Amino acid sequence: MVLTVRLQTISLITPRKGLQHMASAFSSRRTSRPTSRPGVRSFSPNNRSNRSGNRGAAYIHPSKFINKAVAAADEVIYESKHQFSDFPFNSVLAQNIVRKGYVTPSAIQDQTIPYILDGKDVIGLANTGTGKTAAFVLPIIERLSNNGLQPSVLIMAPTRELAQQIDEEFRTFASGMKLFSTIVVGGMNIERQIRDLKRHPHVVIGTPGRLKDLMNRRALDLSFISTLVLDEADRMLDMGFINDIKTILAQTPSNRQTLFFSATITPTIQTLVQQFLNDPITVSVRTAETSEHVEQDIVQTNSKEEKLDRLVEMLGESEYEKVLIFGETKYGVQRLSDHLTKVGHPSAAIHGNKSQSQRQKALNSFKKHEVKVLVATDVAARGLDIPNVSHVINFDQPATYEDYIHRIGRTGRGGAKGKALTFVSHR
Ligand code: AMP
């Protein structure tokens, strides 16, 4: 099966201890969809930049927010070695995959599924949007369903939203197989989570802080974990979860299978990997900087009032179909969202002051086009898979250029045109 992809950069990983087996190291991005057939969902990667834990640069020169010469794509072919029908999945799982419309595995799926099925430890260097969720969910379901894997599986993710997305994917693919999952994340009723854990679900999906909390309350026994997944490990470290992660890992059996997904390999991540993974296979499908295919510009204003007026004016233009706006503070984000709704641009907000169900509701209404504007803080928006965002607007500037690249990677996905606008004040 042939997919058209756009080759960006070759990311070479030097072999080092703990990263001995390298299945493949390349970076690719598709710019055109594979043959679309009715009912067949084509894979559409999210072109997100590499993200590192290096933070700190306070001032970003406005010229970095401008890119009017959007790069043309060089078409190259990524040839997937498998189709989903080639994998030895049981018939119910295979049917669920067909029903979901997946035909051709994405690069990360193509290259990791055989190893994960084999029980190997895997390091997947992949951004959100490359299909990495199914890359680990599908072989885990297969291994659970044929009892090759005892319950249970523990999946750690940085945010509640990502945990929710993983759970949704698990439930879709495990439908009709009597496999159960539960989510344990902060901001939700812990007593209910304790009750859910007592029912011994096959898969527990959680954020590190809540998992540790449950461990301390002796509500979560990790001595039966046979497979452990760390999703978006770099984000979890960015968010200060390193000690929680180490404590959790140390409580799981040493003969577990460990699947480690990250967009970057920093020295801290390398140490983690060396300490906790056993003879891992490394597969990299990282994309390099994504900024050059997103049209970027700045919007200069003189005052707060002018900034707000300009934003409202822009949202009134027809091309602003689905707009993700980034603000700096939880309070500011909520206030901006309320204001936009009041002046006729229905808007939802996600930030850390909202409960999980409120955040999920806001996200769903944006995804379903019930509101055309979503206002978010960086942390709340991390790792989200939101298709067809026409514009990213940085109402408040990001703290670092890394954050900027991460924000604007939400638009212009799968080769679609994207626009990013950043408000700067006259100095
Ligand atoms: P992820 O990187 O796991 O967040 O996936 C990004 C998006 O691609 C999600 O909406 C998935 O449902 C979708 N997706 C993942 N793998 C495939 C595939 N092989 N074919 C079609 N869509 C896919």
Radius of gyration: 21 Å
Which CATH C-level class of the largest domain is it?
Answer: Alpha Beta
What shape does the CA trace take? globular
**How many discrete structural domains?**
2
CATH topology annotation of the largest domain: Rossmann fold
Main beta sheet:
8 strands, parallel
Count the DSSP helices.
14
Bound molecules: adenosine monophosphate
Strand order of the largest sheet: 2-11-5-10-9-6-8-7
The CATH architecture of the largest domain would be: 3-Layer(aba) Sandwich
Q: Write down the oligomeric state.
A: single chain
Proportion in helices: 25-40%
Strand-pairing-aware structural class: alpha/beta
Q: Low-confidence segments, ≥5 residues, pLDDT <50? A: 1-57, 73-77
Give the CATH H-level superfamily of the largest domain: P-loop containing nucleotide triphosphate hydrolases
Query: How many DSSP-defined strands?
Result: 17
Cα separation of the termini: 54 Å
Name the average pLDDT.
82
Give the strand content.
15-25%
Question: Could you characterize what this model shows?
Answer:
There is one protein chain. By secondary structure, the chain is of the alpha/beta class. It has two domains: 13-73 and 289-425, Rossmann fold, CATH 3.40.50; 84-284, 3-Layer(aba) Sandwich (Rossmann fold), CATH 3.40.50.300. It is 33% helix and 19% strand. The protein has 14 helices and 17 strands. The chain has helices at residues 91-100, 107-117, 132-145, 160-173, 190-198, 208-216, 233-238, 242-250, 267-276, 304-315, 330-342, 356-367, 378-381, 401-408, and strands at residues 2-7, 21-25, 28-29, 75-79, 122-125, 153-156, 181-184, 203-206, 227-230, 257-262, 281-284, 294-301, 323-326, 347-350, 373-376, 391-394, 418-425. It is globular and about 65 Å long. Residues 41-44, 46, 102, 104-106, 109, 128-134, 385 line the site of adenosine monophosphate.
